Amino acid sequence: RENLGGEYMKQVIEEMFDLPIHYFIRIDFNGFIEFIDAISGIDVEVERAFTDYQFPAPNYKTQTVSFTEGLQHFDGLTTLQFARSRHGTNGEGSDFARARRQQKIILAVKDQLMEKKTLLRPAKIKRILSALGDTLETDMEPWEIIKFADILKTVSADTIIEKVLDDAPGGPLYQGFGADGAFLLIPKDKETLPRIARDIFETDGIYAENPRVVIQNGTAVPGFAKTIQEKLEELGLSVLRAENAEKQSYTQTVIFDLTHGLKPQTRAILEQTLHGNVSPYVPVDLWQKAQDADFVIILGGNT
């Protein structure tokens, strides 16, 4: 229904994350460009250079856009291109890479607003809102936006947590298709996304260590690795893979610490939860196959 998109978006996000969503802001591409230009552009650290040969252009055409590694100052149009690109080279050709770039832009806007305090003055805010006109839609009153700007002044960058929800191994989403054949990203269950939202500011223990785990089933019990994966994910661990070990005759669970003690909280929880023994060494072939992991667990019959 017309003009209800923002309210519907709030409702869907509330249901998905079990969190109250009080406000929404929608801005179209022209308004986005005008806003970035109104604050004199932003400084963005481009992690890796990339080129998008399929960036949308007017009249259903495409154009090529490129970005150089390092700290760059973007105007409104360049910021929009950086935010929209999803066919880039060098690992930047996905919706998830785009989401990470969009998070960078949000933080860069905050930094620019903090650096130039005059941008947060009520009169300046009112002028920007007036200039954006119909390109901006929100259920916030002007005085609430001004109050939000006052709160923004007190927010330290150290307290900002960034997360991208993806379908990578151990991620909360998986790929699927709707009844109409549309490609979908679907939550693995109803509990994970609310837990991520609820615990996002948790900085103690394994949350701070952000561990990555590979689980191998060393028993003859079918699906045992998958069962343990679900258990560890409930504890906040990211499981990259759940697979079979080379042999299924392990009587004791073995934990291989590829961090060599750098994530002690995770190691202690794994020992306690799985009743496993930490091996004093890591076999070379195992390390070569799991260099993306912090811990490799081979499940035995005692777990």
Describe the protein.
This protein is elongated. Strand 3 and strand 4 form a beta hairpin. Helix content is 38%, strand content 21%. The chain is α/β, with parallel strands linked by helices. 19% of the residues are buried. The protein has two domains: 160 residues, LCP protein (Aminopeptidase), CATH 3.40.630; 95 residues, Alpha-Beta Plaits (2-Layer Sandwich), CATH 3.30.70. The strands form five sheets. A five-stranded mixed beta sheet has the order 10-9-13-11-12, with helices on one face. Strands 1-6 form a two-stranded antiparallel ribbon.
Q: What general outline do the C-alpha atoms trace?
A: elongated
Strand content: 15-25%
CATH architecture of the largest domain: 3-Layer(aba) Sandwich
Helical segment tally? Answer: 11
Order of helices and strands: HEHEEEEHHHEHEEHHEHEEHEHE
Main beta sheet: 5 strands, mixed
Uncertain stretches of 5 or more adjacent residues: none
Distance between the termini: 54 Å
Content-based structural category: alpha/beta
Helix percent reads 25-40%
What is the gyration radius calculated from CA atoms? 23 Å
CATH class assignment of the largest domain: Alpha Beta
| DSSP strand tally | 13
| Rounded average pLDDT | 89
The CATH superfamily of the largest domain bears the name: LCP protein
Number of separate domains: 2
Q: In what order do the strands lie side by side in the largest sheet?
A: 10-9-13-11-12
Kindly report the CATH topology of the largest domain. Aminopeptidase
